[in-house]
Amino acid sequence: MSLRPVMITCDSIDPLPLGRWWAEQTGGEVIAENDGWFSVVQLSSGPRLAFQKVADPTPGKNRVHLDLEADGDLDDEAARLVASGAERLDEQTMGDFRWIVMADPDGNVFCISGAH
């Protein structure tokens, strides 16, 4: 018996625009919006992303986050994300591997990097 990830769900105080933002950033498509309570984004591959309405956002740093691989130049991708409403939080390197820590418009932390 085994499990496979089919959806990664984030809490949000306003899930519909956040789901649309993530669809735009990843080239995905919003496939469901449930009366303002839930938004599901179908990606071209991998699990779906979902955003569910909560009364209060989770305080502090989220314990689960997305790691996304940029197709092109990492700094150009970070600038594009910032121009669309994300915030650049930090940059890290480990040997030759570099990644940038970002936050989406709702404050959810995610990382972008070059090829793994």
Automatic annotation (TrEMBL):
It comes from the Bacteria. Transmembrane segments: none annotated. Residues 4-115 form the VOC domain. SUPFAM superfamilies: Glyoxalase/Bleomycin resistance protein/Dihydroxybiphenyl dioxygenase. InterPro entries: Glyas_Bleomycin-R_OHBP_Dase, Glyoxalase_6, VOC_core. This is VOC family protein. It comes from Aeromicrobium piscarium.
